[in-house]
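About this split. The held-out portion is used to measure sequence recovery: a designer receives only the structure tokens and must propose an amino acid at every position. Recovery is the fraction of positions where the proposal matches the reference. Here is one held-out target exactly as it appears in the evaluation file.
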């Protein structure tokens, strides 16, 4: 039954991608390749804007000087007509297209190692290495997990093309389990489990000090910090969004502890913020008060996504994934002293 379910969902994924490929504009661009074309449609809220205003609103990679260069190079068109300046007013449903030459890549995404621990054609589970962003951003347009996956699984052949869809995210410096789905509709089904708090996630962290209790629940609403304050990006405050995290002390050392955290809500940086709030920030998490231990062989936030349990979207049965501590955290624990 499991094999039939997997084959069924693989076939569904292939058909869905084949339908997407039948349209002139590919639904899911290949993130491992330099992007050379942008097709934008003017919707009601943008009707009446100048081309410059519209592009400033819709793209974030080209300042005004770069836009002017593209106009002079004949790289921008509106309704298939090349534009000569950026002052023209756009009508509803106008089609704006930008075509540029492919820029050289600073890294080949195919060279990025990916640790796949599970792939049944429905779900893809990775053991993410620390230090690698999950998604393209800024200078890491190609040095990220999604670009690496696209280099491995994308194909110009619709029947071979596989598009991974993120179910959740991990911070750049967090290692461990990362879940993706092979079909957008299946992603929505798993997303509903996350929204209903039916997915159990456990993280292991090395924290400063020794909590006064063996286990408990950290409760504290989390809000984004005003950047002008110079404080960490997120903090606990009364007007924040409700957040709760269970914790269990796994081992203690002379000046540190290994703690298992289970977030009951899904706020940004939740574990890092709550660990700091309880007075035991994570080792090397300098953003939230963590310090580097002189003898520890680790230079990143010592946080690892170690366990993930959810209902398989095809079989409807519970399934659990585990990822052992990475070498840098294991080495840090050894140097911090034997468990007490």
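Reference sequence for scoring:
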């Amino acid at each position: 039954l499991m094999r039939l379910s997997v084959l069924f969902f693989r076939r569904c994924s292939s058909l869905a991608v084949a339908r997407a490929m039948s349209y002139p504009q590919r639904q899911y661009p290949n993130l491992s390749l330099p992007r050379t074309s942008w097709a934008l449609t003017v919707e009601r809220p943008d009707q009446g804007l100048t081309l410059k205003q519209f592009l400033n609103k819709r793209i974030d990679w080209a300042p005004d000087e770069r836009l002017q260069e593209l106009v002079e190079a004949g790289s921008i068109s509106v309704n298939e007509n090349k534009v000569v300046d950026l002052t023209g007013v756009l009508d509803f449903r106008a089609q704006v297209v930008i075509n540029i030459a492919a820029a050289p890549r600073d890294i080949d995404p195919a060279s990025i190692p990916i640790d796949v621990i599970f792939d049944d054609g429905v779900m893809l589970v990775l053991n993410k290495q620390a230090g690698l962003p999950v998604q393209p951003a800024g200078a890491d347009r190609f040095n990220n997990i999604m670009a690496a996956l696209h280099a491995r699984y994308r194909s110009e052949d619709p029947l071979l093309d596989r598009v991974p869809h993120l179910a959740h995210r991990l911070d750049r410096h967090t290692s461990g389990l990362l879940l993706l789905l092979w079909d957008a509709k299946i992603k929505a089904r798993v997303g509903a489990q996350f929204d209903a708090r039916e997915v159990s996630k456990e993280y292991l962290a090395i924290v400063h000090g020794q909590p006064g209790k063996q286990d408990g629940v950290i409760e504290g609403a989390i809000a984004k910090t005003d950047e002008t304050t110079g404080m960490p990006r997120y903090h606990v405050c009364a007007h924040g969004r409700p957040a709760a995290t269970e914790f269990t002390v796994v081992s203690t050392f002379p000046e540190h502890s290994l703690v298992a955290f289970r977030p009951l809500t899904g706020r940004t940086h939740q574990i890092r913020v709550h660990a700091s709030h309880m007075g035991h920030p994570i080792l090397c998490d300098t953003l939230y008060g963590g310090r580097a231990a002189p003898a520890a062989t680790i230079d990143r936030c010592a946080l690892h996504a170690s366990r993930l349990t959810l209902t398989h979207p095809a079989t409807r049965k519970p399934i659990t994934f585990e990822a052992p501590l990475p070498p840098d955290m294991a080495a840090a624990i050894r140097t911090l002293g034997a468990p007490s």
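Annotator remark: The longest strand covers residues 200-208.
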